[in-house]
Amino acid sequence: MRKKEATILIVDDDDDILFSARISLKKYFSEIITANNPKKISNHLTASSVDVVLLDMNYRIGFEDGKEGLYWLKHIKEISPETTVILMTAFGSVNLAVEAIKQGATDFILKPWNTEKLYGVVNAGLELSRSKRKNTQLQTVQKQQDQDFHQQTEHIIGNSPAMQSAVKMVQKVAPTDANILILGENGTGKYVFAKEIHLQSERKNYPFIHVDLGSLNENLFESELFGYAKGAFTDAQKDTLGRFELAKGGTIFLDEIGNLPLHLQSKLLTVIQNRKITRLGEGKERVLDVRIICATNAPIHEMVEEQSFRQDLLFRINTIELNLPPLRNRREDIQLLANHFLKKLNQKYRKKIEGFSKEAITGLKNYSWPGNIREIEHIVERAVIITDNDTIMPEDLHFSAKKINVHTENSLNLEETEKLLIQQAIKKHKGNISRAAKDLGLTRAALYRRLEKHQL
Length: 456
What we know:
By secondary structure, the chain is of the alpha/beta class. 45% of the residues lie in helices and 14% in strands. The chain is built from 18 helices and 14 strands. The strands form four sheets. The protein has a five-stranded parallel sheet with strand order 2-1-3-4-5, with helices on both faces. It has a five-stranded parallel sheet with strand order 7-8-11-6-12. Strand 9 and strand 10 form a beta hairpin. It is elongated.
């Protein structure tokens, strides 16, 4: 019979009982720990993930009321709520058994025991412990995902060659377990692509855990990522899963990895290399079963040359490197994105805006988009809120005139471009003709002539 992966702790002041229980159970379970003093319980619970505790009821000679057993039962449940506790005594009574169950014991066994009965009780306790741990993990994962998924995942939108190339790469790498590094400017959709890779993978039915390393306090790095045991530090009131454990079976997305300081890079490298973590305050290693996707907007290859990012860590995280194009390099997709956000925002604000004017589309295409997709959503949202028209006009779009670029591949109409620049300059300077003219490099008279020409 193959042993079950489980840790069983037996606590009794009688060494013969410990020996007998160990011999009876070691052929069924992978790890059997014995302790002849209940004061050692805390050390064992923090050093290992104990599934079941077999706990004697009486320790002091002459005292057979079971009060000590009930005391240590309460202690165990406070330290490790998911651990199953089975009480054992040679002086069983119905009242004591009932009290033990009320205080959290799972079962009650009398000494001397039948080996088959002992195995059956411990095995049932093991299944209960695993069920509790699974429920705790699911609840924690759900809570974490409720926090992480405040960002709505959008479908990947774009017909440009650059985007189609990125999508094809996703389709190739998603079914594998390869580590992926996503590179791109702020707002290019790194989170969306990471989520899409997860959804197209065999891990899609397991958690997707997002960690923003850029906003993570250095002092919380290990406790957040690797978890901690109760009592590991002042505020550690209970055993807590880290992000890596929360992602068990699924994907962990380490965003803004380029912001990670060198001394923390080495700790992350060790975890990725060994595929094991150790919670703070514990000595037990836990095997990881996660897919790792990283992302950054930093020039990470240059950082390696400057020795501000570890080369060995880069080798570990970029088995596949996915570069996302900035919006200015995929102008064919700007109108698609604008219309997509308009449809979504019409629903959000209960409006019925039909679309964008020709001049507004020209303005969107000629803008430099330093904030990429995130910025276009913000600008369209603002326009939806402030416009009083059925169509979004250039004056509804709020971006700096100095960041408007003329791209001849999108528009060869000089009249439209001139009109747009004038509108943006006047809007920027709140109708002050002198300042708008100066910004445009014109005299006041020249600007007035152009206003008349374009009927502005």
